[in-house]
Design brief:
This protein is an all-beta fold and about 130 residues long. It is about 0% helix and about 45% strand. The chain is globular and about 50 Å long. It has a 4-stranded antiparallel β-sheet, with no helix packed on it. The protein has a 4-stranded antiparallel β-sheet with strand order 5-6-7-8, with no helix packed on it.
Length: about 130
């Protein structure tokens, strides 16, 4: 007998603890990550993971290797997709280079070209 929470696949790549995940489910797949939509949760197509290794990795559900890598994401970072699933957003803490004030850096990426860098960066002073 198998448990419904058994590991069905491992995704290897980060060298630090994962701090955030964002999952894009296949249309009509239901909720949750699982082996498919037959009682085990929803099937997923793409997901992004942020880690304490200063990277965000984009994954394809059909492969266990990352398909894209975003670097220079500091600290406890956060990652999410917009509702259209075309834009990936990352947020991470930083410090003002001159005054040392805490900042949050938000960056937006074209999901298909995340390796090319952000198309928009917003720095918010806390």
């Amino acid at each position: 007998m198998t448990t419904p929470y058994a590991c069905c696949r491992s995704f290897v790549g980060h060298r630090g603890c994962v701090t955030s995940l964002s999952v894009v489910l296949l249309a009509g797949a239901g909720g949750g990550i699982g082996p498919g939509d037959k009682g085990g949760g929803g099937a997923f197509d793409t997901f992004a993971s942020a880690s304490l290794d200063y990277t965000v990795r984009l994954w394809d559900g059909s492969s266990t290797s990352p398909r894209a890598l975003v670097r220079d994401v500091r600290g406890r970072s956060f990652v999410t997709y917009d509702p259209s699933e075309a834009i990936l957003a990352t947020a991470h803490p930083d410090m003002h280079p001159r005054w040392g004030d805490p900042l949050t850096v938000v960056r937006l990426f074209d999901e298909r070209k995340a390796d090319a860098g952000p198309f928009f960066t917003l720095t918010v002073r806390e």
